[in-house]
Amino acid sequence: MIPFHRLLITAGIVFCFGFALWAVWRGSMTLGIGFGILGAGLVYYLSHLSRFIGR
Length: 55
Known about the structure:
Order of helices and strands: HHH
Number of domains: 1
Structural class: mainly alpha
Radius of gyration: 13 Å
Distance between the termini: 14 Å
């Protein structure tokens, strides 16, 4: 179950950073920055996943 969770988080990271780049390119800086921060949060969560799940 955990490898699938890692896959979903990775997909979320790719989506957030891709959407952030697209939003900035289209001129929506607030939306782009927000999704960039969300993507960075997911990167932090993925890198510390074992601590969050208690293993």
